[in-house]
Design goal:
Layout: H1 2-10, H2 14-26, H3 43-69, H4 81-95, H5 98-101, E1 105-106, H6 107-120, H7 128-137, H8 142-147, E2 155-158, E3 163-166, H9 169-177, H10 179-201
Antiparallel strand pairs: 1-3, 2-3
Length: 202
């Protein structure tokens, strides 16, 4: 049961899986290979370990997504295009299972989700060419210039197959553990958008 839990929320990533196992074993004061077999079957500790690993991953991921989605400088007539694109990606991550996501999100599906966001907020369509251009630039690491850290991109557009690849494994990890945590990031970005628009109007 514990192994199944860790496998599921590792989202096929061996590094994340090993981090769960390491923290689980260390909670029993096991730090290296033992000469005797010992069965570890405390499901409550396993859940606590899962909580700990996810919580350690969530804050840095939220910061990275926020830095990527929000503009460095506010413009009066900004359409918040990057923000809408990122919110659409996150919405689709919540709506679809990990096996599907790991094959890439079709650009056509992303366009549909972006259109839905625009319609819900009462804004005009962003246009296919504008969105495609934005998707092509989404891996250019604007977050690196803001944070001074050299991150691997969160997302990358596979132009030949017209799919957006989700490169950051912790996104899958958190989605498998509790997709509501991803939804919370979307809600935070949406509230930020409203707040920034109010500032510009004032």
């Amino acid at each position: 049961e514990i192994i199944s839990l860790f496998k599921r929320i590792s989202a096929h990533n061996i590094g994340i899986f090993k981090s769960y196992l390491y923290k689980f074993c260390s909670s029993f004061d096991i730090w290296e290979t033992q000469s005797n077999n010992k069965k570890l079957f405390d499901t409550q500790k396993a859940t606590q370990v899962a909580d700990q690993v996810v919580n350690e991953s969530l804050a840095p991921l939220s910061d990275r997504i926020r830095n990527l989605a929000l503009p460095q400088r506010m413009k009066k007539d900004s359409k918040f295009m990057r923000q809408k694109v990122v919110c659409a990606i996150l919405n689709l991550i919540v709506k679809n299972d990990t096996d599907y996501l790991q094959n890439g999100l079709p650009v056509e599906l992303l366009m549909t989700e972006i259109e839905a966001i625009c319609k819900e907020s009462g804004e005009e369509s962003l246009g296919v060419s504008n969105v495609t251009q934005e998707l092509g630039l989404i891996h250019t690491r604007e977050e690196n210039r803001q944070t001074k850290n050299n991150f691997i991109p969160l997302f990358f557009l596979d132009k030949s197959n017209k799919k957006l690849l989700i490169l950051e494994p912790t996104i899958y990890q958190i989605r498998e553990y509790n997709s509501q945590l991803i939804k919370n990031i979307v809600d935070d970005l949406s509230l930020t958008n409203q707040g920034e628009q109010l500032k510009v109007q004032v």
